[in-house]
Amino acid sequence: MLSTLIWLPAIGAILMAVVPQSLLRTGATLISSAVLVLDLLLLRQFQLGEPSFQLTENLPWLSNINLNYTLGVDGLSLPLVCLNGLITWLVVCFDREIKERNRLFYVLTFLIHSGLSGAFLSLNTLLFVLFYEIELIPVYLVIAIWGGKQRNSAALKFLFFTAVSGILILIGFLALGWLAGSEQPLFDYQALQSHSLPLATQLILLLLLLVGFGIKAPFVPLHTWLPDTYVESATPVVMLLGGVVAKLGTYGLFRFCVGLFP
């Protein structure tokens, strides 16, 4: 179920690149609707009385660095995954403002959706960073292509701030993994929750993550990319940015800052 929620939009992006122009809008609507139906099925399967992660998946990937494909959903990630599906469906079905290069817009929208869902469902810190960065370039492109007169500078500002955010988060997770692991770095989220570090070390790592996710959220005074980006972006892009993308920063604050450094 969880892998399908991540990879179905990615497959949809590939299909959008090759379907005939006459079937473009219909195909995009069908794909976004299928993802939304899967979100509703996820809501139905989710056990509200169970506090632990549900529907977990764990596949070995790069075992030498403990980067594994580990997914799970809980009460924190569930509403955001469903919100992602709803916003994407609305953007695809009511994108009347996007009148040029619709094919590319659908491809980028589904890639953004896939990256966000992957980040919300990741239970491996390195896997989270990977999905966190996957959505960066598509978001940059939808701002730069379908924005206003100052769209290029707004998109570059977004790209720079978000890249800094990703670097800080990656440094924090790498440091945490090496300090928590005895022989190998530890990047499994649930294992990290049960590991304790000296308070001074925790505060330093917390500061890195706080600034990194604070840029994405964004919080004052790390918010200076937001006004230009929102003003210059097309309405469907603003829906994606304000509706889901910015939520990834706040999600990271709760999931990792509170979850790992309470």
Task: Give a summary of the structure in a few sentences.
It is built from 11 helices and 2 strands, in the order ααββααααααααα. The protein is mainly alpha-helical and 262 residues long.
What are the defining features of this structure?
mainly alpha, 262 residues
Describe the structure.
The mean pLDDT is 92. With 262 residues, the chain is mainly alpha-helical. The relative contact order is 0.13. It has eleven helices and two strands; from the N terminus they run ααββααααααααα. It is globular, with a radius of gyration of 18 Å. Helices cover 69% and strands 6% of the residues. It has a two-stranded antiparallel ribbon.
Give the CA-CA distance, first to last residue.
30 Å
Strand content: 5-15%
**Rounded to an integer, what's the Rg over CA atoms?**
18 Å
Q: Mean pLDDT across all residues, rounded?
A: 92
Q: Give the helix level as a range of percent.
A: 55-70%
Q: What shape does the CA trace take?
A: globular
Query: How many helical stretches?
Result: 11
Largest sheet: spatial strand order = 1-2
Main sheet summary: 2 strands, antiparallel
How many strand units? Answer: 2
Low-pLDDT sequence parts: none
Alpha-beta classification: mainly alpha
H and E string: HHEEHHHHHHHHH
